[in-house]
Amino acid sequence: MTFHYEDERLLCEGVELEAVAREAGTPCYVYSSRSIVAAYQAYDAALGSLPHVICYAVKANSSLAVLSLLAKAGCGFDIVSGGELYRVLQAGGDPGRVVFSGVGKTTEEIGFALRSGIRNFNCESEGELAEIDRVAGALGVTARFSLRVNPDVDAVTHPYISTGLRDHKFGIDIADAPAVYARARDFRNLRASGVSCHIGSQILDYSPILEAAGKVLSLIGQLQADGLGIDHVDLGGGLGIAYQPGEQAPAIHEFIAALRDRIGRYGLTVMIEPGRSIVGPAGVLLTKVLYRKQSPAKKFVIVDAAMNDLIRPALYKAHHEILPLRRAGGGAIVADVVGPVCETGDFLARDREMTDAQPGEYLAIASAGAYGFAQSSNYNSRPRAAEVLIDGSGWRVVRERESFEDLVRGETR
Ligand SMILES: *Cc1c(COP(=O)(O)O)cnc(C)c1O
């Protein structure tokens, strides 16, 4: 168990988290390196002898230390911006295992990616194909691309993170794809190498991903019959994790076994782009209780982390478990856990049955390794949190807490 209690103290691997909270300060993200590497290895082992590239979706958690851990383990990367490519290169990632996704790649980003020698562009419009062709021509290189197709499959998840339906901005309608691939043959500096899709995130029942894979594979069969040299299928990310007690995350090996059954006979390289399922369960956000307060209707636990540190509860009504760093025998309360930001939407938990935490005590917001720090901001001029990486019985700060000077960097009066 990555996070577990020993003598009523919460540990990550072999490290007592209260010691980290005291030394590194709060709010502070803490990640387990073992958990991150184990999740990557679960995908890698399950794919086994099938030719494959696992491209970790950088947007889930783009800390250099996390990227570096994964790069050392042999992982590739799925990027959605030039900034993410810069981070991957800084972390020692192999550009030959990078795929570039996203609907709005700029000319500068395309040039940077081509000069860096990335493996593949996942393209989302014909205008983008034309632009990549133009930039590749100017640089004298050939760009490999996949079309990201929209298979019109409902991922059954939060509407903001569902991406595979016909009215979403993502991808090219799967019915139009053969014609787009045919027209793309006219681009002299492009080579069609794959088909990609990504239908959404936090998917707990993976049957829609299998359904999408079925549609994408039959498209590939058709494209190959048309004489296109399609050699890979990219099935995106999206596997969910357990946020609530009783919620069951799909087992990575079962999901991959189901995919293998369908893909095995096509002779394709399989690419996948998991984000949340690699880093989500590996991280917690540590916070300190500042005050307790009781309104006529409610109890409030006021903590030093806020929606600028972890926006998922406010944005998606997401549930994160709240764990005390020191378990006391005392009774439970029902309370809202709220931060200092001036918004009613600034809550980390609502009407939650939880430990009777008093000012000065510490709490961990669980399952915060994905889309936590990465979506944090300086709203209310709050410096962004520190980040800590645990490795066995050791730990180190991998991102310093921002200072007030950092807050005004680059500004003029
Ligand atoms: C966000 C995203 C992913 C990762 O999704 P997870 O749910 O974090 O696994 C993969 N591919 C693309 C194109 C994405 O936009």
Main beta-sheet strand count, sense and barrel state: 9 strands, mixed
Mean of the pLDDT scores?
Answer: 95
Poorly predicted residue ranges? none
User: What structural category characterises the helix and strand content?
Assistant: alpha/beta
Number of helices: 12
CATH superfamily of the largest domain: Alanine racemase
Shape: globular
CATH architecture of the largest domain: Alpha-Beta Barrel
Number of domains: 2
Ions, cofactors and other ligands present here are: pyridoxal-5'-phosphate
Measured by DSSP, the beta-strand proportion falls in 25-35%
Total strand segments: 21
CATH fold title of the largest domain: TIM Barrel
Radius of gyration: 22 Å
Structure description:
- The structure is a single chain.
- This protein is α/β, with parallel strands linked by helices.
- The protein folds into 2 domains: about 5-30 and about 280-405, Lyase, Ornithine Decarboxylase, Chain A, domain 1 (Beta Barrel); about 100-270, Alpha-Beta Barrel (TIM Barrel), CATH 3.20.20.
- It has 12 helices and 21 strands.
- The chain has helices at about 15-25, 35-45, 65-75, 80-90, 105-115, 125-140, 175-185, 205-225, 250-265, 275-280, 310-315, 405, and strands at about 5, 10, 15, 30, 50-55, 75-80, 100, 120-125, 145-150, 170-175, 190-195, 230-235, 270, 285-295, 300-305, 320-325, 330-340, 345-355, 360-365, 385-390, 395-400.
- Strands 4, 14, 15, 16, 17, 18, 19, 20 and 21 form a 9-stranded mixed beta sheet that branches. An 8-stranded parallel barrel has the order 5-6-7-8-9-11-12-13, surrounded by 5 helices.
- Strand 2 and strand 3 form a beta hairpin.
- Helix 2 (about 35-45) runs parallel beside helix 3.
- It is globular and about 70 Å long.
- The N and C termini lie far apart (about 50 Å).
- The relative contact order is 0.16.
- The model has no long low-confidence stretch (mean pLDDT about 95).
- The structure holds pyridoxal-5'-phosphate (PLP).
- Pyridoxal-5'-phosphate (PLP) binds next to helix 10.
